[in-house]
Amino acid sequence: MKIGIYPGTFDPVTHGHTDIITRSLRVFDKVVVAVAPNPSKHPLFNLAERLAMVQLVMKDLDQVDVTPFDGLLVDYVERSGAHAIIRGLRAISDFEHEFQMALINRKLAKTVETVFLMPSEEYSYLSSTIIKEVARHGGNLTEFLHPEVARRLHDRIRSLKP
Ligand code: ADP
Known about the structure:
Blueprint: E1 3-8, H1 15-24, E2 30-35, H2 47-57, E3 64-68, H3 73-79, E4 84-88, H4 92-108, E5 113-117, H5 128-136, H6 147-160
The structure holds adenosine-5'-diphosphate.
Adenosine-5'-diphosphate is lined by residues 8-10, 14, 16-17, 20, 38, 87-88, 90, 94, 119, 123, 126-128.
């Protein structure tokens, strides 16, 4: 059974992430979505909230597990017996950072491969950061987020307004 680990911050999970997960299930038998605390990114949602949203969005896909993860990614990948790291590639702007990460991970663990998947064009401009910006200005999120995730995001932004 081929297992892929899809790591990220997922603050919050978008249709772009879902698209990558769905595509990875054509390559892997099982995908583990590994949600990182990433305090340096100052997430809007805490780890438990982000995990709950990914779980909600993925609830109908039996081949997808959702788990928290901290520490060195390659250690986690090796420990869990997974076969590869899955990352999404959007515009060219993602490439440099992803290239650097993939190579450093390979240096740290020779046998851990990174597999890159490209999203559908409609999601190729989508990021959690831009979604939060749209939400801050009261924009419609239905095309980008699961309705319950959109509701939680609007609620969070409303609660932070002075
Ligand atoms: P990170 O903090 O690791 O960048 P993210 O939650 O922002 O975590 O993203 C996790 C992964 O999903 C990354 O590989 C990112 O490039 C990818 N990703 C995010 N949004 C999209 C999208 N719209 N299309 C394709 N890949 C995406």
